[in-house]
Sequence to fold (289 residues):
Amino acid sequence: MAGTDEDAVAAADDALYVLTAVLLTPAKFPSVLGDDYPEACAALGLAPLADGYGLVLGQDGDGSRWTVVIDDVSLVAVAIASWDCGMEYDLSPEEHTVVAALPGWPLAVAVAAPGVPAPHDPGPEVADRPPLTPPDASTWGPAQRRLGADEIAVQWSLWREQIDDSEFPLPGAAKDNEEAEETAETAEGAEPVGKAEGNGGHQGIRRVLAEARGYVDTPPPLGRVRSSFAPGDARTLRADGPGWSLVARTDDIAFVLLDDEPGEVLPVGRGPELPGLLEALDKMAVRPL
Fold:
């Protein structure tokens, strides 16, 4: 890549071998960085510009890891789309588009540039801040919870097929299901989430659904609720909050992950309340351009 800022140019001898790139926009950002777009930008020391940024991850001639931030979002979007289609694309941002060159990588990158030393963080003599590092995969925390939600959104069919709908009958079916009636009785007095929604009696899920409803009345920080493509007329919804992540299809169920329950994926059935909540969230959600 020909253009970096002065620090990166000095460190890389005016060369950066691009390995991958990601978008940092209100509608799509690396979730490891935060629950919303402003929080993700703050993790990198960036102002939350409305149009967002592109993050270019690569190595310099010494093998050092660098994350180059550019404001040419469309260039990075085209590169990502080309790579996803198996096409080659030379991602070479112009120097005037470079906003910052940050040491390290915020994400795990499985590949390395050929012909240079193995990936390593640049030394303090060329970096004016601690290097960015991927989250520790061996511990459960907010970053791992959000990464788990990312995986469910991408592999929705795989996760969905593991759920037996009889565990939380859809509206109407509960009337003919003695077990569902018994479950509904135990939910009397609970928050109005509709006990036909599976796991509706789970305290953590009740809190998540209540906070998600609050987003409809009081919009949260930009990017807390995002809507993306799904098959048919549905949308994939993603919402995050303090200690929780929710992934849903507007025509189907939802999954909840909690900081307090490491590694657990909690399904939430449709019930009488979830469809309306998902519809309301979708209307206020940020969407990719």
